[in-house]
Amino acid sequence: MNEIFDDEIIDDNDNFKDSDAYSRLKAKYPAAFPTGVKPSKIKKATDGKRRTKMRVGKFSELKELWDLINQKAVIEYKINSENEFLSIFKSFMLEETERFTKSGVHTRIDKIYIYNDTAMSKSIISGDDNFAKLNTMSYREFLDNLSQTIFAKHDTLHKVFCDIKETINITEYLNIQTIRKIKSGFSKYLLNNSFNKFSLGYNVISGSIHPTKFTNADGEPVNEVLSSDLGILNDNTKTTPWILIFLRKSFMTQSLNGST
User: Fold this and answer.
1) 11, 33, 38, 139 from 29: Cα distances, Å
2) Are residue 105 and residue 176 in the same domain, yes or no?
3) Which key words are in the record (predicted)?
4) Does some domain include residue 46?
5) Measured distance CA(90)–CA(97) in Å, rounded
6) Do 81 and 182 sit in the same domain of this protein?
7) Distance CA 167, CA 152 (A)
8) Three-class SS of residue 253?
9) Do both 226 and 167 map to the same domain?
10) Angle, vertex CA 156, rays to CA 155 and CA 161, nearest 5
11) Based on the structure, what is the number of domains in the chain?
12) Which residues contact 25 (CB under 8 A, 6 or more apart)?
């Protein structure tokens, strides 16, 4: 401290004496001000990635299961008739009654904080999950958009809205947010009620399954894979059957893809 004081870099109050003081301090103690990034901090994307050998000889025993795991499928809701769909959608809308009877509310919170000696602000907008009474489109436009979004017939939607108009007046909520919330809520409603109101099925999508994490384009097992593709879980038992290891890692990296 005495040295930098004697060199007139700082004053009696330990403040820099002039605009050039900081540069002179760096020149006097260069080791305290490293420049650039350490070589060990920069790596190529292909460098240093650990790879794990595959037990290719064992793959044939699980090929059928592996192909099934990687097969893509589309979930089907088995609704027998348009009247049944009408009843299901009507039940969903009536369950949402409370969210419609309340107005949408948004709260904005502004926070001011200090970062690097600079005052900064941050706004947080929170909103409840209720439907907002706001009309930005006509009833016809609303039906068109909702019909395309949830794949339902105009007539069916119109009949439901007419049936429930004493409880929910949909003409007060003709906006895109209402459509998005109905789509999201109805999708969850269908999934949650798929076992007691109707049944589920699926259609396998034709097309190539391979390549996958463990196979090439021809469906043959690769000799090695990136260790990161095998997940991070481990088993502390001394003797874990190889088939359990394979299954555990398989399910960690691959899944049956589905959509509604």
Assistant:
1) 18, 7, 19, 74
2) yes
3) Endonuclease, Hydrolase, Nuclease
4) no
5) 11
6) yes
7) 21
8) helix
9) no
10) 95
11) 3
12) 4, 9, 16
Alpha helices for the chain (secondary structure H): 2-6, 21-28, 56-59, 63-69, 82-95, 97-101, 139-150, 154-163, 176-192, 242-253
- For the chain, the C-alpha Rg in angstroms (whole number) is 32
DSSP classification of residue 73: E
Same domain for 126 and 193, yes or no, is yes
Q: Do residues 96 and 189 make contact, with C-beta atoms less than 8 angstroms apart? A: no
Residue 215: strand pairing partners: 221
Calculate the alpha carbon distances from 151 to 37, 85, 175, 176, 245 in Å.
55, 11, 18, 16, 42
- Predicted pLDDT of residue 214: 79
- The pLDDT score that the predictor gives to residue 258 is 39
Classify residue 228: in a domain, yes or no.
yes
Cα separation, 179 vs 185, in Å, equals 10
Mean pLDDT by 10 residues, the chain (260 residues): 74 78 81 66 62 77 76 70 90 88 57 68 58 88 94 93 93 92 90 68 63 80 78 52 47 41
> 197 and 79 in one domain?
yes
Please tell me whether residues 209 and 194 are part of one structural domain. no
| Residues 6+ away with beta carbon under 8 Å from 19 | none
What tokens does 53 get?
A: 């050998």
Question: Has residue 17 been placed in a domain?
Answer: yes
Residue 221 bridge partners (DSSP)? 215
Q: Tokens 């909103």 sit at which residue? A: 127
Length, in residues, of the chain: 260
Do residues 87 and 194 share a domain?
yes
Structural domain that includes position 216:
51-72+205-253
| Residue at token pair 């109050």 | 13
Domain boundary among 179, 203, 227: 203
